[in-house]
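Example S7 (structure tokens).
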């Protein structure tokens, strides 16, 4: 066999190995590798972090507690008997009873619903406002950006809790629905500025990319470019900020309810329970410690989850 025939036979044999997907071949045509993406790299980084799994488990646990509290306690939080005032743990009341003879643990479990509802809806409406303002300011620039940026600066300079106290003082109704809606409205109107700045920065970066210029050359209008090309790039950083903000909104609602400005009884909220426990702390500290622990762990879980997602999506931090 000539040298030419030997080389040709070797090439044919190597090609057959590549097509069959045998290991050790440099080019496995039959099994192409999965393309790398930011989301895939972020997930690979997230699943290696214990802090991500711990915070995720806590968030899922609190969400399940708010959605189906009956899974965590069989006692009725409204079943209060004065004869059990500050009684020791018994039956399903694993943390005893408060000054009204109510199950401390049951009220802490049912308090998750109102607190999480206010935090989640506040974050949702905050995200909608931030996306609209940030995308308009970042995409159009010029006087639109100048005006909206000044609006962001003005709102950012207003102390959130102080303004919330002033505005919620004007709400005269004691209806649970009205007060929950009022707290959500105030937190959303005052808390969107940070997310809007993040969205604006992402939009400014995305609008200079080549794919946006290519879309313009193909005749795409501003609306289509913003919806199809800009919005997907602005969502990821906005979700990270809103995840952290959700924990802050839960803490803000608890603070307002603790001060008697936010939610009010008969609504069960961690802030209300903490205030009631504070008043009777000398008789028993458990009604103060239990809802405080639930609140602290929930806020910490959302903040840690947001931090983990932010670090995973930021290439500079890898």
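Recovered sequence:
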């Amino acid at each position: 066999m000539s040298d030419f025939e030997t080389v040709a036979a070797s090439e044919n044999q190597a090609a057959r190995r590549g097509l069959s997907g045998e290991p050790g071949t440099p080019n496995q045509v039959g099994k192409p590798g999965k393309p790398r993406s930011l989301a895939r790299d972020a997930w690979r980084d997230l699943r290696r972090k214990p802090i991500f799994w711990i915070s995720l488990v806590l968030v899922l646990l609190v969400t399940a507690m708010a959605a189906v509290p009956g899974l965590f306690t069989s006692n009725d939080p409204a079943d209060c008997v004065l004869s059990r005032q500050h009684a020791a743990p018994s039956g399903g009341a694993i943390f005893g009873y408060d000054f009204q003879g109510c199950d401390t643990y049951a009220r802490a479990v049912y308090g998750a619903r109102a607190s999480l509802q206010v935090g989640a809806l506040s974050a949702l409406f905050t995200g909608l406002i931030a996306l609209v303002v940030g995308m308009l300011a970042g995409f159009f620039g010029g006087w639109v950006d100048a005006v909206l940026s000044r609006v962001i600066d003005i709102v950012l300079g207003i102390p959130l809790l102080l303004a919330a106290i002033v505005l919620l003082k004007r709400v005269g109704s004691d209806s649970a629905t009205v007060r929950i809606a009022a707290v959500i409205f105030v937190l959303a109107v005052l808390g969107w500025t940070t997310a809007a700045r993040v969205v604006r920065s992402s939009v400014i970066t995305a609008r200079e990319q080549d794919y946006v210029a290519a879309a313009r050359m193909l005749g795409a209008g501003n609306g289509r470019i913003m919806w199809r090309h800009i919005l997907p790039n602005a969502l990821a950083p906005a979700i990270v900020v809103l995840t952290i903000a959700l924990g802050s909104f839960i803490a803000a609602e608890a603070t307002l309810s603790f001060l008697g400005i936010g939610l009010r009884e008969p609504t069960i909220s961690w802030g209300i329970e903490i205030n009631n426990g504070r008043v009777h702390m000398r008789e028993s500290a458990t009604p103060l410690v239990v809802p405080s622990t639930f609140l602290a762990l929930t806020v910490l879980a959302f903040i840690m989850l947001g931090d983990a997602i932010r670090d995973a999506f930021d290439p500079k931090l890898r």
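Notes on this example. The CA atoms of residues 44 and 312 lie 9 Å apart.
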